[in-house]
Amino acid sequence: MSRHGGVIRLISAETNNHNHASQVMENIMNHQTILQPYIFFEGRCEEALEYYRQALGARILMQMRYKDSPEPLPPGCASIDPNLIMHAQFQIGSTIVMAADGRGARQAKFEGFALSLTVPTEAEAERAFHGLADGGHIEAPLARTFFAVSFGMVTDRFGLLWMVMVPASGTPPTNCNDHGVQNSAAHSSI
Question: What is the pLDDT of residue 124?
Answer without folding.
Answer: 97
